[in-house]
Amino acid sequence: MQKLVNFCLDMEFYLKIAISCTITQQLFFLLLNKLKLNFITEVLLYWLVGTISFYAIGIFIEKLIKSDDSLTRKLTARVKKVKKQSFPNFTLKGIIIGEIKALITALIIIYLAPEVHRGNGLILNMGWFFMRIVAADFCFYVAHRLLHTKLFLEIHLKHHEFQDTSSFVAGHKSLMEYIIVTITDVLPVFIFGYDITQLCAWTLIGNIYNLEGHSSLSIFFIPSNFHDLHHTGFHGNYGIHSFWDRVFKTLNPINKKNRNYVSCQFY
To answer: Measured between alpha carbons, how far apart are the two ends of the chain, in Å?
Structure first.
């Protein structure tokens, strides 16, 4: 019975992503369907949506939501306090380098991925997004677990400089990890093809769950304790959500009896 409940909760997450992406795609379709976008315009649009949403969502979480103590307590599902850490400040150089990487990534994706115009059908789009999140979660799980092996761990250590997490830790990666994670995220695009409205919607919603997952809060999609457990325990919880960790038995659950973190030893 518990396995069925867990499965339903995992599917709920995937459906929430698919529905949210579909609604967002509808808005992009209304804005863009009468416009003829060339290659450069699509690249710039995709890059701008990703960049603006990343900083806007991160600032919204860190400066607005977390400024309200009662709201922060309400949205936090942590079971163990983590010592507060000082996070690296934004620098002009860091922002410029980050945006150059993001722009180059957008250019490569739009250039190489097959473009497929799917129209505006709700069911078709929701099905596409559902397959997209399940596939993306699997690709991320595999890559992330590999990054925790001795062979690739050095690449991933920069991201694990922080046990305590903040939304913008989501973007704190080495260049090699950035490339690996980007490839795993866009691999389904090369499998399923892309429509610019779907791509923009996916980027926006993807930034929401990625930033939320590192925020230590439970706001829209991901329980705050899921990725916290990964950062504090270092092992387990390799996926975006818990489905693939359940499948491959790497889930680091909460020990409800003592309200503490369960140790995971896989290597």
So the answer is: 30
